[in-house]
Specification:
The protein has no helices and 20 strands. Strand 14 and strand 15 form a beta hairpin. The N and C termini lie far apart (56 Å). The N terminus is likely disordered. The protein is mainly beta and 274 residues long. 0% of the residues lie in helices and 64% in strands. Strands 1, 4, 6, 7, 9, 11, 12 and 13 form an 8-stranded mixed sheet that branches. Strands 2-3-5-10-8 form a 5-stranded antiparallel sheet, with no helix packed on it. It has a 4-stranded antiparallel sheet with strand order 17-16-19-20, with no helix packed on it.
């Protein structure tokens, strides 16, 4: 006897260019509706399948919100006026890509003028139509099991319209000690109406001397929302005990596409073993 289980592999294409049999470019679509004169707009993405076999995809829309861990929360249905999925269409909506080839998908958004001020969102799902089966072997009671897998990639689509703002700040930046080392604990707040997408660096400073510098994980923070997360502190270039400054420097672009830098310091005390 065999039991079949249905599974769904999902990759949200936020900086993830490839997942399983799907490669998409670009990984997100962002549109400023204030620069559009018509009541509609279009964009395009390129989809590539596998190199050794043809793959059939279908495209369909959904709605999502951004959590305080910078993750996309999928919504099966929404009454939000910022739900863009009801105004979005794809051409083609189902297609087969020959092995090693690619296909452009046109994204059409209608009714731009009826959108509310602020940020409207949708997700473009690209789903491999053909299911894949994976044998899980026999269970302890002798029943064989197979997992049915479907692969799906989600490309976020944002439309900014009317009066909107993008404002970010670092509310807290602390250092916590765990069993495997030191971690920086950061909370970034977005007080504007629309998302903020930031990148960053962490500097380790002793007095006026820069000891080390390394990337801080970039994130997306939803409008009127926050992001909290931890990241391991690199201490391999600290060679002696003492007091250091750990400085977080974040960079983002506001609603006028002006570059903004924000920073916050934490005191890093090294005594004995790090």
């Amino acid at each position: 006897m065999k039991k079949k289980l249905l599974g769904l592999l999902i990759a949200m294409a936020v900086g993830i260019p490839a997942y399983a049999s799907i490669i998409v470019s670009p990984t997100k679509i962002e549109i400023n509706a204030n620069k559009i004169k018509n009541n509609y707009t279009t964009a395009a993405i390129e989809v590539k399948g596998e190199n050794d076999r043809p793959v059939r995809f279908r495209a369909y829309p959904g709605y999502f919100e951004i959590s305080n861990t910078s993750e996309m929360i999928m919504k099966d249905s929404s009454n939000s006026p910022h739900d863009l999925s009801k105004k979005i269409r794809f051409v083609p909506s189902e297609f087969t890509i020959p092995a090693g080839k690619s296909q452009k998908v046109r994204v059409n958004i209608a009714g731009i003028k009826t959108l509310p001020d602020g940020e409207s969102r949708a997700v473009l799902y690209l789903e491999d139509v053909n299911q894949k089966e994976m044998s899980l072997g026999n269970t302890p009671n002798g029943i064989g099991a197979q997992l049915i897998l479907k692969t799906r990639v989600g490309v976020p689509v944002y439309v900014d319209k009317g009066k909107f703002t993008k404002i970010a700040d670092i509310e807290t930046f602390n250092i916590v000690r765990k069993k495997d080392g030191l971690y920086s604990d950061i909370k970034v707040v977005s007080t504007g109406t629309n998302r903020v997408r930031y990148t960053g660096i962490v500097q380790i400073i002793q007095g006026k001397k820069l000891i080390d510098e390394y990337p801080l994980n970039g994130k997306v923070v939803g409008g009127n929302n926050s992001y909290s997360g931890i990241q391991k502190v690199k201490t391999d270039k600290i060679v002696e005990s003492g007091e250091y400054t750990l400085r977080a420097i974040l960079t983002y672009f506001d609603e006028n596409n002006n570059r903004k830098n924000i920073k916050k310091d934490a005191i890093l005390k090294i005594t004995g073993e790090i």
